[in-house]
Amino acid sequence: MAKNLKPGQTAPRSGQYEIRGPRGGHTGNERTVTRGEPMPPTPGRGQSYTLVDPTKHGGKRR
What residue ranges do the domains of the chain occupy? Predict the structure, then answer.
């Protein structure tokens, strides 16, 4: 149920996003993106992003 995000779209969650090839293949490259920020440009045409490691916000605030 991975959602592919295109460059310029707003990141729904903070975390590590993998760059996917035009046909969905793994590239092995990741970018760290903060929730609410636009996804950065990709190095190649037709590529997209998939969230692979969401940021874990833990602990209680005091």
Answer: 15-53
